[in-house]
Design brief:
The strands form two sheets. The protein has an eight-stranded mixed beta sheet, with helices on both faces. It has a two-stranded antiparallel sheet with strand order 4-5. The radius of gyration is 19 Å and the shape is globular. The chain has a single domain, classed as Zn peptidases (Aminopeptidase). Helix 1 runs parallel beside helix 4 and helix 3 crosses helix 9. It is of the alpha/beta class. It is 38% helix and 16% strand. It binds zinc ion. Zinc ion binds next to loops.
């Protein structure tokens, strides 16, 4: 219907307007005095801020985006938001993907999407080893609407999506000040996760950067909430998969957290006998199947999981920022240290 079409276009403009206002408000960096590497990465980690995460997350999980269902209008609006953001940050779009998207044809989704859909990709080229790629991923799709009710998917996975945007911004600000990464970093927003990990499956079958030189996938899916087990001590995150393909990655991750973020790293769901099988339940799994080292960052489930009550007001933004910083520091170390990650058995 025409009226609805006009309404959505107007809403898209409003979202872009808010985005531009947000960018103007946070654009200026500070002068660097410290030359010590440690101080440098800490400085840029501080660019990850709870109020900016909040702006992203409230927009992405708002009713306007109608639950971001794969192939639907609300999801396309999310794509516009993500690509406009990267354009403003002046991140690179991959060759042959100049609009920051990878199109996936409708038929690939086995009847689970009414239209083509897109992964969103933006990257920062490494200064010393540009061919080696660190992937930071999160799915941006969710369940859409049922009977007029919106599944906002604030934790699942507007939280991870917002974290990727803030991490990308921090790396880009650092690069603009002369501290770009030695290895390339790809920020990858995946579609079709909720109905079968389709976006990541398509990506690994049609890689934009060679999988042979893709050295890790740090995948973020649900990182803004606290589960029952950790109500008393909420500065935690579940890590899944970190030691399975590269013990080197596991050690690096532990050490990074010890120095910079001091979260409690909970490996409960990394056990081989995990009854919930979380290792196979988000997008990192498709990278792991290609023997690429992965870490899946996850806050565990809660009573609002896959319900219309997974809303933005229940997100802990300070905690989301702290977890995003852990991922930023981990990516920084992988991207900048002398040695490439070593896989088990190498
Ligand atoms: Zn989900």
């Amino acid at each position: 219907m025409i009226f609805l079409q006009i309404q959505i276009n107007t809403m898209q403009k409003i979202i872009l307007g808010l985005l531009i206002a947000l960018l103007i408000s946070c654009g200026t960096g500070k002068t660097i005095n410290a030359v010590q590497d440690d101080a440098v990465r800490q400085k840029y980690a501080e660019e990850i801020q709870p109020d900016e995460l909040k702006e992203h997350l409230y927009l992405l999980s708002s009713d306007i985006l109608q639950g971001r269902k794969t192939g639907e209008k609300g999801q396309k609006m999310a794509v516009n938001y993500l690509t406009a953001y990267y354009e403003h940050l002046e991140l690179k779009a991959p060759v042959d993907h100049s609009d920051y998207t990878q199109n996936i044809p409708k038929k690939y989704f086995n009847g689970k999407s009414r239209a083509d859909s897109k992964n969103v990709l933006a990257y920062i080229e490494g200064s010393e080893f540009p061919d080696q790629v660190v992937v930071i991923s999160a799915h941006y799709d969710h369940l859409g609407m049922k009977k007029e009710e919106v599944y906002n998917g604030a934790d699942d996975n507007a939280s991870g999506t917002s974290a990727v945007l803030e991490i990308a911004e921090s790396f880009q600000i650092a690069k603009n000040k002369g501290y770009g990464p030695k290895r390339s970093i790809l920020f990858l927003h995946l579609t079709g996760e909720e109905n079968g990990l389709y976006g990541s499956k398509y990506y690994v079958e049609h890689p934009v950067f060679s999988l042979d030189s893709t050295i890790v996938d740090l995948n973020i899916d649900m990182v803004g909430r606290v589960d029952k087990k950790h109500e008393e001590n909420k500065e935690y995150i579940y890590l899944i998969g970190s030691n399975r393909i590269s013990s080197d990655l596991h050690r690096l991750s532990e050490e990074t957290n010890r120095i910079y973020t001091q979260l409690k790293l909970d490996y409960t769901y990394n056990e081989g006998n995990d009854p919930y099988q979380y290792f196979s339940r988000s997008d990192h799994y498709n990278f792991a199947k290609k023997n690429i080292p992965v870490i899946f960052y996850f806050n565990g489930t809660h009573e609002d999981y896959h319900r219309t009550t997974d809303t933005a007001d229940k997100i802990d933004f300070d905690l989301l920022a702290l977890r995003a910083k852990l991922i930023f520091y981990t990516a920084w170390e992988i991207a900048n240290r002398e040695h490439k990650l070593i896989k088990n058995g190498e």
